[in-house]
Amino acid sequence: MSSEEVDMKEVQRQLSKVIDPEIGVPIMEMNLIDKLDIKDGTVDIQYHATTPYCPPVFALKISQDMKTNVEQVKGVKSVRVVVSGHYLSDAVNRQVNKPAAPAAAPAPQPPSQ
């Protein structure tokens, strides 16, 4: 699918569902999104943390929720989320954007007797 088939408004709608777990306010209402690009089905999201010392578990949850929600949009092939302004930005970004683990092979079945 081409990038024209990914609806920017739908991406924004999905992002508006992401709530800061500490504050209880949608991230879109807090204007945390710095950059939102869509190209050939790939969505790049850059945002900043509310504070440099936001609890890392919250920064990770926000990033993961953004990625999970946007992956549901029709035509999206991949999503990359990058947080800045957080003391653990690098670790959060690595965790959220790591490649998915390959599916586990089915367990071998014992021979029939």
Overview of this structure, please?
- The protein is built from 3 helices and 3 strands; from the N terminus they run αββαβα.
- By secondary structure, the protein is an alpha+beta fold.
- The protein has one domain: 2-Layer Sandwich (GMP Synthetase, Chain A, domain 3).
- The protein has a 3-stranded mixed sheet with strand order 1-2-3.
- Strand 2 (42-48), helix 2 and strand 3 (78-84) form a beta-alpha-beta unit.
- The protein starts with 7 loop residues before the first helix and ends in a 16-residue tail after the last helix.
Key structural traits:
GMP Synthetase, Chain A, domain 3; 19% strand; 3 helices; alpha+beta; three-stranded mixed beta sheet; single chain
Low-confidence stretches: none
Fourth CATH level, the homologous superfamily: Fe-S cluster assembly (FSCA)
Main sheet?
3 strands, mixed
Terminal-residue CA separation: 49 Å
Question: Order of strands across the widest beta sheet?
Answer: 1-2-3
Q: Work out the helix count.
A: 3
* Rg value: 17 Å
Number of strands: 3
The second-level CATH architecture is 2-Layer Sandwich
User: What best-fitting shape do the alpha-carbon axes yield?
Assistant: globular
Strand content is: 15-25%
Fraction of residues in H or I helices: 25-40%
- Count up the domains: 1
